[in-house]
Structure formats: structure tokens, C-alpha cells
Amino acid sequence: MAEDLPHRTPQEDWEEVLALCRPPHRDGDEWTPTLWRLVQTASQDPLLRTLYPWIAVGQLHVARTADWLNKPDPYPSIAAAYGEFSVIAYPPGKGAVLLRTQSPAEAVAWTVNLIREEEFNKKA
Fold first, then answer.
1. Beta bridge partners of 59
2. Exposed, middle or buried, 119 (CB in 10 Å: 0-12/13-18/19+)?
3. Global confidence as pTM
4. Nearest CA to 35 among 82, 69, 97?
5. The dihedral of CA 124, 44, 18, 100: what is its sign?
6. I need a labelling partner for 17 at 20 to 30 A (CA). Which of 23, 33, 47, 120 fits?
7. Distance between CA 28 and CA 54 in Å, rounded?
8. How far apart are CA 28 and CA 14, in angstroms?
9. CB 78 within 8 A of CB 88
10. Which residue(s) pair with 80 in the sheet?
């Protein structure tokens, strides 16, 4: 439950995610360097900085609350591996890849636009 969670801020969680992915990386590690590029880029976006990030299975996820496990938001995630970034729809499933690119900035921009669209549709 949310009341059982330690009080954290999105900023604290971003610092934790950045620390998790920060170099140096192990030789032969094909995932973490790409994830590092993604997290660096995403952490600089003003909208994403207001959300709580976490990493799961090579994907960056964000949510409005620290209780994302019990109250997930319908936001896309970004997978990062082997120098490639994929924006994944929520909920993931068949046809879930919305964009595949070698640019972390492009993946972040797409994700931010989708989150803004989702929030706009909630208000409409």
C-alpha cells in the first residue's frame, strides 16, 4: 500500500536509476550502456522528471506515484538494448512496439508526446 512506502520524490528515484546504469559497465555488457544513454536523456526531460522512474527487464518505465507496482499508469515504456530504443505501448502485447530507433532523444520525445496525449484524453 502507498502508506507503507517510504516517502520518496521523483528526483530521488531518478538519481537511483541513474546510479544503477552509470558507467563503468562490464566488458560484453550489451544492455547497460544503451540503457545508460536512455536514462541520461530521459532524466533531462522536464515532464519525465516529474514522474517516478524504474527499470525492469531492460525497460524504463514511469508513473505518477511511487506506488507504481499497485497503481500502474497507462504510460508507454522504452526498451533499450544493443544500441536500439523501442517505445512500447501500454499494456504491452502483440503490436506493442510503437517506435524503434537508434536515437534515445527520439524515443524519449515519442514517449513524452504519448504521455501528454494520455493525460489530455483523461481530461477530455
1. 56, 79
2. middle
3. 0.88
4. 82
5. positive
6. 120
7. 24
8. 26
9. yes
10. 85
Residues 6+ apart with CB under 8 A from 13: 52, 53, 54, 66
Question: 9-32 as b/e, with b when 16 or more CB fall inside 10 Å?
Answer: ebeebbeebeeebeeeeeeeeeeb
> Before 91, cis peptide (omega within 30)?
yes
pLDDT tens column, 1-29? 445 556 789 999 999 999 999 999 988 88
Q: Is the dihedral of CA 11, 17, 21, 23 positive or negative?
A: positive
Cell for 64? Answer: 505518477
* Dihedral angle of Cα 111, 95, 92, 14, to the nearest 10 degrees: -20
